[in-house]
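dude i think i finally got it to work??
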Amino acid sequence: MREILFMGLLLSTSAFASECQITISSSDQMTYDQKTIAIPKSCEKFEVTLSHSGKLPKLVMGHNLVIVKKSDLEFVANDAMAAGPDSGYLKASDSRVLAHTPLIGGGEQGKAILDVKKLNISEDYVFFCTFPGHRAIMQGEILIK
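look at this
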């Protein structure tokens, strides 16, 4: 933790860090607990932590969180499905994927770091789970504010 002097006040940088991160919870019921991620324009990097509160293993009820342009969603999802379970249902080195967590099972967590500078405010962005059949329910929008 660093401290900075701002307008005569000594502030901890951790106060700013909290607006540049979010925790999303998932479960054995194929859900994310949030449908929107709001990212402040002031963030250089944005950290997403995905937590799986379920009990089932990742090969049965695995989840990840993948961030892409909305226009790339179908293509990335199809390639991820073809990549299969050994790759965590994500095509290796897919340049359309802006950030992603690993595939996790019950009781696990995964993190993704998004480079906010790569986002264009005129584009639409989404997050979703690439595990087979999950995308229909497990997806949401990214808002840049």
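Residues 73-83 form the longest helix (11 residues).
im so relieved honestly
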